[in-house]
Design a protein that fits this description.
Strand content: 35-45%
Helix content: 10-25%
Largest sheet: 11 strands, antiparallel
Order of helices and strands: HEHEEEHHEEEEEEE
């Protein structure tokens, strides 16, 4: 019902900074550098497999697919399994056509407000900030009701993970009330390149006062292969 929202993914060390402190200019620059490292990734240089499990209104859909971004548009996606079974030719063709312009594009800059960061905690290896979240896909009613956090690997200036959750109920569309929303995005580094590792999303609420909304999803990226002999076009 609200699949468009889905598309919008504890350290054990002693904390060095426990009180909430406004982030300094140096901290903002650190986060900006980490974000820029991810946005500089040339997506056409990497093929990968994606495994996704989505449960919407009690219905589970599981997909295993191969993505080759530098191939022709109709050959970028290959459906390997659908709900644990080998897909039919018709299912594979439909999947490839529907997904041909999709990749692992993640609008990180939309998820983070570097001018509103608050230092949450810091260890010798990582530093974590919190900030208010403004996502247009979740509607105006969500303003002031979403909090994000970003953890940075200080040694390599890489994003480790980003999480977003709600602090109050909000209405993304008319007649819908979301009481629980959580998005977590984990990243990894291969060959000095920051890449998505997995995204998870949880959302519960009601629609028209009595219809239960309950959606969960997890998308895992694996088997990355680097391809350098391709165009430098990075629009996917």
């Amino acid at each position: 019902m609200f699949s468009h929202i889905r598309n919008v993914v504890i350290s054990s060390f002693i904390l060095l900074a426990t009180p909430a402190l406004a982030a300094s200019i140096a901290h903002q620059n650190l986060v900006n550098q980490a974000v820029e490292r991810f946005t500089q990734t040339n997506k056409q240089h990497w093929s990968y497999q994606v495994h996704s499990i989505e449960i919407e209104e009690g219905e589970k859909t599981e997909v295993l697919a191969q993505h080759i971004p530098h191939a022709n548009a109709d050959k970028r996606w290959h459906l390997l399994q659908l709900n644990g079974k080998k897909p039919s030719s018709k299912q594979a063709e439909k999947f490839a056509k529907k997904r041909q312009n999709e990749g692992f594009s993640v609008s990180i800059k939309e998820l983070i407000k570097t001018d509103a960061l608050t230092l949450h905690h810091e260890t010798p290896e990582y530093i974590t900030f919190t900030y208010p979240v403004e996502l247009s896909d979740l509607g105006e009613d969500a303003l002031g009701k979403l909090v994000g956090s970003i953890q940075i690997d200080k040694r390599h200036l890489n994003i480790d993970h980003i999480s977003i959750h709600n602090t109050d109920e909000f209405s993304p569309v008319a007649l819908a009330e979301i009481d629980h929303f959580k998005l977590h995005m984990q990243f990894m580094t291969i060959d000095n390149t920051v890449l998505p590792k997995y995204n998870t999303m949880e959302m519960t609420g009601t629609f028209s006062f009595f219809i239960e909304i309950e959606e969960t999803s997890k998308t895992t990226f694996s088997n990355y292969q680097k391809h350098l002999a391709v165009t430098d076009d990075n629009t996917i």
